[in-house]
Amino acid sequence: MKLPEAERLGAASGGRRVPALLRHAPGIALLAVLILSYGPVLVELVRDWIRDPNYNHGFLIPLISGYLVWSRRGELVSGEAKPSLLGLGGILVAVAMLILGTAGAEVFTQRVSLLLLLGSLVLFFYGWRRLRRVAFPLVFLLFAIPLPYIIYYGLTGPMQALAAKCAVLGLKAIGVPLLAQGNVIHLANGSLEVAEACSGIRSLYAFLALGALVAQSTSIPAWGRLLVFLATIPLSIVGNAVRVWASGVGTCLVGPEVTHGTVHELFGLLVFAVSLGVFLLFKKVVRNAWSHAGSSPSPLLDSPGSTPESSEAGDRQTKRSPPSSSSPSS
Predict the structure, then answer these.
(1) pLDDT at position 321, please?
(2) Measured distance CA(221)–CA(149) in Å, rounded
(3) CA distance 252 to 245
(4) For a Cys staple, 256 with which of 11, 55, 190, 307, CB 3.0–4.6 Å?
(5) What pLDDT score does 69 carry?
């Protein structure tokens, strides 16, 4: 008895579907374990992006990393996978970091362990070549993770003091009378406090992320990309100092109301845009300098198109060649 055509096709497709599901079962199980283990960690991370203005840019970082991986998908699927057992060691270290971070309520350790786990899984299943392809997108995800409090407050204090000192020097240079007491600058029209929000840590963190992305996309050697990336630090610090100084000038001319509200925010965006323009100009200078160094002209020779090697070869050939039969003999 023959089955109808539709039933035979359904049975055949069902037979193909079950093996396909079995093939993907390990990946589905691994994904489920990751969600169960790191779900609470990721939820709390998103909450930090929402609550803390210093890390509002965190929503963009995973999208950029995902795009970088997607743009390299051709390189990732090409070639033979060469799994490495060293990835297993990284997986064990990542699991240990998750356990210790959970036990000690250290969220930074838990979040970094996820990045280490992802990189170790790529190494364990696919090998070093593919890990190198996704290394930058994985490291770039670090900019989405808020700094530990001990590092954050260790940076904000000195950056506040530096911004206040630079603003005082700038205001004195243009003849503004003032009295400085720590991070508070007393002016004729009011007082200007360089608070934690004015330390510049927000613009520095965002600038570092942007600088890493621009440096990675620049076709220059690794040392040049590192130089471009590190240039974001002084540019961010100087830009924040200029913003505090301008707030002091605005307080003298208009009043303390210019240190908050829409005008203050717009001026901060303007300073960031100018700093970004200077950074892109610096990147262009470094790239052009490398291009000129790599394409330096060769020394001038007597005849165009000749080289020292060809001249020497020609001399040797002339010395070796016997006189022709048509030449007169002495």
Answers:
(1) 45
(2) 35
(3) 11
(4) 190
(5) 92
Domain range annotation of the chain = 25-144, 149-293
Residue 95: count other Cβ atoms within 10 Å of its Cβ.
Answer: 15
Which residues, in sequence order, are CB contacts of 278 under 8 Å at separation 6+?
235
List alpha helices for the chain, DSSP H: 5-23, 25-51, 60-71, 73-77, 86-103, 107-126, 128-140, 149-173, 201-216, 222-230, 232-253, 262-294, 308-320
What DSSP letter does each residue of 4-21 carry, written as one string?
PHHHHHHHHHHHHHHHHH
The DSSP-derived string for 107-142 is: HHHHHHHHHHHHHHHHHHHH-HHHHHHHHHHHHHGG
Rg (CA), the chain: 31
Tens-place pLDDT, residues 234-289: 999 999 899 889 888 888 888 777 777 777 788 888 888 898 899 999 999 988 88
Handedness of CA 302, 304, 307, 310 (dihedral sign): negative
- Residue 193: in which H helix or E strand, if any? strand 191-193
Alpha-carbon torsion angle 236, 145, 218, 235, nearest 10:
0
Strands 179-181 and 191-193: unpaired
- 117: Cβ–Cβ under 8 A, 6 or more apart, which residues? 34, 90, 91, 94, 95, 98
Taking the C-alpha atoms of residue 324 and residue 330, their distance in angstroms, rounded to an integer, is 13
- The pair phi, psi for residue 325, each rounded to 5°, is -70, -25
| pTM for this entry | 0.76
Q: Where do we find the tokens 């130089």?
A: 227
Q: How many CA atoms lie within 13 A of 284 on its CB side?
A: 6
Q: What is the pLDDT of residue 119?
A: 94
Pairing of strands 184-186, 191-193: antiparallel
| Sites in the chain below the pLDDT cut of 50 | 1-3, 6-7, 9-15, 296-330
> Within 10 A of 195 (CB to CB), how many other CB atoms are there?
12
Of the candidates 298, 279, 273, 268, the one whose C-alpha atom is nearest the C-alpha of residue 232 is 279
237 near 194, Cβ under 8 Å? no
